[in-house]
Amino acid sequence: MNRTTVGGPELGGGRGAGGVVVLVDPARAGRSPVAALLATELHPSVHLRTDDFLRVIRRGQLPPHLPEAERQNTTALAAAAQAAFAYATGGYQVVVECPAVPALDTFRRESRTTGAALHYVVLDPAPGRHTVDPTTLTPETTTKAVLAALATGTHLLGW
User: Fold this and answer.
1) Which of 15, 23, 102, 128 is the most exposed place for a label (fewest CB within 10 A)?
2) Its domain of life (predicted)?
């Protein structure tokens, strides 16, 4: 048994590798508790927040909603994706917490470059291919629903 399967599911699809799940909550329906609980269920795991990659900018930070913040936001998202896949190639299961739908091409590019699996989950009541509806669930049951979806591969975007 390799270390990525001890104590929890493996995002790498049974290949003995780490993987990345991008967890998006556009309505902010409990994203933080779900992301933290999800990371607790995976082993070994890392929990990254894309917001943290913006907060580390000390001078010249712009509010991310402004059009002129596009370069800043793109750079921070690229840094988050690179960090996530660096951990994944080291065998970690990585939960990336995003407050809004990110430019997935950044994550897809890192997935293709590293060969690590990429999963995408949106916490949203609107039905969709990559959604989990958290509105009638607790953070714990939402986490279980996300884990079940990850186990079936329905949220897998690529390697």
Assistant:
1) 128
2) Bacteria
Alpha carbons 145 and 130: distance in angstroms, whole number: 12
Question: 88-133 pLDDT, tens per residue?
Answer: 999 999 999 988 877 889 999 999 999 999 999 999 888 888 888 8
DSSP label of 133:
-
> Rounded to an integer, what distance in angstroms lies between the CA atom of residue 116 and that of residue 53?
21
Q: Please list the alpha-helical segments (H only) found in the chain.
A: 31-41, 50-55, 70-89, 104-114, 139-152
Residues 117 and 111: beta-carbon distance below 8 Å? yes
Report the half-sphere exposure of 129 (CA within 13 A, side-chain side): 7
> Shortest CA distance to 53 belongs to which of 79, 71, 33?
79
Cβ contact 150:9 at 8 Å? yes
Structure tokens at 150: 């990850």
User: What does the longest C-alpha to C-alpha distance in the chain come to?
Assistant: 49
Distance (Å, whole) CA 130 – CA 2: 29
| Residue 53 to residue 35: CA distance in whole angstroms | 16
Q: Is the per-residue pLDDT at 11 higher than 50?
A: yes
